[in-house]
Design goal:
alpha+beta, Naphthalene 1,2-dioxygenase Alpha Subunit, Chain A, domain 1, Rieske Iron-sulfur Protein, 2 domains, five-stranded antiparallel beta sheet, 11 helices, about 25% strand, globular, binds FE2/S2 (inorganic) cluster, binds fe (ii) ion
């Protein structure tokens, strides 16, 4: 049985067949015309995005393994939706999301000055610091100091305000609509079926970077959605790269993906040595059999990663140790703070190191990737300044930039254009 036949028997193979496209099909579906930059430049469009995208689409806000025990919680600030979220694992082990807003007078139940904070609820309750109202980790209002002083108080109606929350492959998503139009499973559709099943949960060593960039969130998203820039922007950190090939184009509703090939990642002598440490063990070495069915069907050795882009702001790069040595996968998120400021978060995921040599090798690879990210993020503010100047009216996009074209089109449809 050949690889394609084996892949066809694996879960997700049918989804792959549904969403895979040739570049000719992509050009015919998405067109080749320049894409206007108004959606990046115009602050009025940002206000529409807040309501029609970020208060309507499913948004990844946490991971299962960030809050593994009963009572563990994460507070995630979401300026784009003008709220603070409390994501908490209840006594029943279920993960729920609430507005981090006290129903007494609106203070934050868990105060924070950071974009995200972690903690543990003692005895599975959370107490508001302002006047001490106490809430269960599954939402209900438990107790109120000096309750008789309120005259009448219907405590049953004063639980924390719950937000729709569901999990896919350990990634926790929320939907801020009063009544979400789709379940998370429906929202991800074939995309979720294809990219489900990857052992995300085994890569528990995570290195997280974040910074606030003075650019519109889409400038940052678009810069990480294509490989056209790699030979130029990354000539410093990846000197061996002579070119990138995007292949196996995929469209699935608002989501898109592509396979990235390119030789040369281990060209630097120091990286080659560390790669040798990680590649010596099957645990960290290239595991192409882990990527979803139908991806890299001929087993090309220059496979780097698959680049699923979950609308609106979550990118996953599935490498299975084939791209950056030892790297299982890495993710990006782009959180608008306002029209011209974005919180970017990048996380590298490895399987745990079992000795000092593996740990040192992971730290080296992580630093190499951090350097590449510095090169990426270094472009963004200039791009935004250029677009704001009014000097260009559109972006001229080539085949490798098709996910930008698709994301821009999806955004238009969410905004009702
Ligand atoms: S605002 Fe929370 S107890 Fe008063
Ligand atoms: Fe890059």
């Amino acid at each position: 049985m050949n690889d394609q036949a084996v892949a066809a028997l694996r879960p997700g193979a049918e989804a792959h067949a549904h969403i895979g496209r040739t570049i000719e099909q992509i050009r015919s579906e998405l067109g080749v015309a320049p894409v206007p930059v108004d959606a990046i430049r115009d602050p009025a469009i940002y206000a529409l995005e807040q309501d029609k995208v970020f208060r309507r689409a499913w948004l990844k806000v946490a991971t299962d393994w960030e809050i593994p025990e009963k009572g563990d919680y994460k507070v995630k600030e979401l300026p784009v939706a003008e709220t603070s979220l409390l994501i908490v694992r209840g006594k029943d082990r279920k993960v729920r999301a609430f507005h981090n807003v006290c129903t007494h007078r609106g203070n934050k139940v868990v105060p924070t000055t950071e974009f995200e904070t972690f903690g543990k609820a003692r005895a599975n309750v959370l107490s508001c610091r302002f006047h001490g109202w106490v809430f269960s980790t599954d939402g209900p209002l438990r107790s109120v100091p000096l309750e008789s002083g309120f005259g009448e108080l219907d405590k049953a109606c004063l639980g924390l305000r719950e937000v729709a929350c569901d999990t896919w492959e350990g990634f926790v998503f929320v939907n801020l609509a009063d009544r979400p139009e789709q379940t998370l499973e429906e929202y991800l559709g074939d995309f979720g079926r294809l990219f489900g099943g990857f052992p995300y949960h085994e890569a528990t060593t995570a290195f997280r970077y974040s910074t606030v960039l003075n650019c519109n969130w889409k400038v940052a998203l678009y810069a990480f959605s294509e490989g056209y820039h790699v030979p130029t922007i990354h000539a410093g950190s990846l000197p061996g790269f002579t070119g990138i090939e995007h292949s196996d184009f995929k469209l699935a509703g608002p989501h898109a993906s592509s396979t990235i090939y390119g030789a040369g990642m281990e060209a630097a002598a120091s990286t080659a040595q560390f790669a040798g440490v990680l590649h010596a063990d099957r645990e960290h070495g290239p595991r192409p059999e882990l990527v979803p069915p139908g991806i890299n069907p001929t087993g090309r050795t220059d496979f780097q990663f698959e680049l699923p882009n979950i609308f609106p702001n979550f990118l996953i790069h599935l490498a299975a140790g084939c791209g950056y040595p030892g790297m299982a996968y890495f993710t990006h998120q782009f959180w608008p703070l306002d029209h011209g400021r974005t919180l970017w978060e990048g996380i590298n995921y490895f399987r745990p190191a079992r000795n000092a040599a593996e740990r040192a090798a992971q730290l080296h690879v992580n630093a190499l990737h951090r350097n590449a990210w510095l090169e990426d993020t270094g472009t963004m503010e200039d791009t935004f300044t250029g677009i704001r100047s009014g000097a260009i009216g559109a972006m001229h996009l080539m085949d490798q930039e098709f996910m930008i074209r698709h994301a821009a089109r999806t955004l238009d449809s969410y905004l009702g254009k």
